[in-house]
């Protein structure tokens, strides 16, 4: 399993490095700079609102299905025939609830016009994730990796033409950004559907309330977990827009830093996407987990520490390079969010492990506690400190989740603290922060300083043996098990 994890991680990271940085920093950033913080903040708060209730589209089906297909691949045809009908019913339910809640919290016609398309986009994105859960559950990780970047590639092409192609004399509008995503999701959905249908023995969609009820009973713990996590990750921008007079602008400023956190989290999420079916199958087969958990942890924590260190010392330079407005204010928010990325990375390993093991009750208790903590902190901090207060709230919440998930995982799996690893991580962090200070003080060109710091950090990771090139090469070249379908 370590060979499968490493080889497919290399592929999926490579593909995402080709596409998603340009999506985040080329398209999404340019859209905000073009339309301004106020209009982008308007979009961003509505987008976050649509994400808060996104779980109603899925009710935990995708995670449940990924785990179930990984453990019992022969169930694909049966599950696919029934779940596809259920997904459409959930889409209608989600749309009704979203629009009703929008009325309750005071949205006007201008918000609803955009919200309708965001609702459609969320449905298409959720359906696409469900189709991909079948592909990755079957262990066809390479195919899933290609699908994972297809929608963003299409958006890049469409928005690139609109932004730089000079095909219209009108200034780019934020609505065009939403419509481009709709088209991209539709095209990618068709491709993913054709792939999944080719792997099924039969496809007989049907309306069976008893079967739907059975699926929902099995998946609702996953649904509750995703709902709670969505709220404590995304509610900040919604509360900023609703609590403050200049809420749209504050949400736009928060989005400037959150965009980079979101980009980093996309790569951390790749670990979870690969690890959930791998952990699920290993647990089913009673395989030892220590090595794969330790390996994945080291692979994700080292880049997270390096990235957090860079943002602490170079935040103003990075924000000034990326944006035209509110540079100083945004540069104070940025380091707080990126320090939280260390905790987010940890949760993608240990939260995924607990999910694969079926410890949903424990995870839901932790996520519920985190949500309550986040809302209370936001109510206290946002009125006084605005977007900066939301960033402080996010950092505290993410740190709480990381620490508690590690503790629960250690108890459930009998893991013991690896003091050697802890000492090496502490040493690595200290050395990198010292080098970061020297590079900022003595290297005048900030971009060169960042590149040199990254190079030194990678070398230190190998010297301290957080990373071991020989072990990685042996896993990729020779493997640690017999090849399986989908590798």
Would you write up a description of this structure?
The protein has one domain. It has helices spanning 2-35, 37-52, 61-71, 76-104, 109-137, 141-164, 174-199, 209-243, 247-284, 290-322, 327-356, 360-413, 419-442, 446-463, 469-477. Helix content is 84%, strand content 0%. With 487 residues, the protein is mostly helical.
How many discrete domains? 1
**Count of individual beta strands:** 0
Mean pLDDT: 84
Helix content range: over 70%
- Secondary-structure content class: mainly alpha
Largest sheet: none
Strand content: under 5%
> Any low-confidence stretches, pLDDT <50, length ≥5?
475-487
- Helices and strands, in order, run as HHHHHHHHHHHHHHH
- What is the molecular shape? globular
Oligomer: single chain
**Rg on CA atoms, Å:** 22 Å
Please count the helical segments: 15
Kindly, what is the distance between the CA atoms of the first and last residues, rounded to a whole number of angstroms? 10 Å
Write a brief structural summary.
With 487 residues, the chain is an all-alpha fold. It has 15 helices and no strands.
Q: Could you list some keywords that capture this structure?
A:
single chain, disordered C terminus, 487 residues, 84% helix, 0% strand, mainly alpha
Q: What is the secondary structure topology, with strand pairs?
A:
Layout: H1 2-35, H2 37-52, H3 61-71, H4 76-104, H5 109-137, H6 141-164, H7 174-199, H8 209-243, H9 247-284, H10 290-322, H11 327-356, H12 360-413, H13 419-442, H14 446-463, H15 469-477
Helix pairs in contact: 1-2, 1-6, 1-9, 1-10, 1-15, 2-5, 2-8, 2-9, 3-5, 3-8, 3-9, 4-5, 5-7, 6-7, 8-9, 8-12, 9-10, 9-11, 9-12, 10-11, 10-13, 10-14, 11-12, 13-14
